[in-house]
Amino acid sequence: MSQPKILVARAVFPEIIALLEQHFEVEANQADATWSKAELADRLKDKDGAFTTGGDRIDAEVLAQCPKLKICANMAVGYNNFDIDAMTAAGVLATNAPDVLTETTADFGFALLMATARRITESEHFLRAGKWNKWSYDMFAGSDIHGATLGILGMGRIGQGIAKRGAHGFGMKVIYHNRSRLDASLEAECKASYVSKEELLGRADHVVLVLPYSPASHHTIGAAELALMKPTATLVNIARGGIVDDAALAAALKDKRIAAAGLDVFEGEPKVHPDLLTVPNVVLTPHIASATMPTRLAMARLAADNLIAYFKGNGPLTPINPAVAAIK
Ligand code: 8YV
Q1: pLDDT tens for each residue of 192-212
Q2: Which of 67, 71, 234, 269 to pair with 86, CA 20 to 30 A apart?
Q3: pTM of the predicted model, to two decimals?
């Protein structure tokens, strides 16, 4: 019996390719070539399944060219690269990679918050540029993390991880806003209080964004929201590009309407808004919040296991649109 055909759209760990090859006829992209949408569709058109990452767009246009496609397994917890309605309509199952990256990503959110509030990269650039000639009382004076008010927008698993780090590790007062309120036991575990988005923006010393991207969350933070924040506040985005209006943020940073920002995700990445590159009070990282080797391996393994379980007829492990779970 011939094996199902799988496309792996981006370079991944060789051991994951080897694992997939035990179950599938695999077309891999270990050279990590950047494919246009048309090229991705062309390579997918005779495939039964796809191993994708967050940059691989699967929508109605692609699906129309791929009649055999049954499942796309994303090596990411976020799945805004998938048009889920179009996939469901086409009978294509979508899976993501939750849980395995929660703690690593929460660690990074906290690291970016610390780097931003304490001006770590800005001061390092100053030192490397040979500008450090003498100590001064206010040199790179930032804002405190311990005891400060931490506002978390988006209180899923990663948001809860950041809340726990803040409350238990740094004695922060944690407030959060989310589509739905957590139950009382989770709120107690995170030592977090539910507030409106407006109250959160007005009260927080540090705002961390961890909400999923969708058309509804586009520009959750724009000029109006930045105006509600304290002039001493910091903003950290580890969620998705598009949640923040990057042009409005660059303007607010330039005018010191907020103190600083830490950004791991950008609108239109890997491009970065040019104004963000010219303001000093922003820490910029290239979408690396989940980037530790064990975690990236676990994410890739979960995506591969979703494909393997599905084609064995066991059902996928972490489906997004489970109604499509029956084998086509
Ligand atoms: C990934 C992410 O590195 O999981 C997510 O949603 O944003 C990152 O962990 C990226 O999307 C690559 O797939």
Answers
A1: 999 999 999 999 999 999 999
A2: 269
A3: 0.96
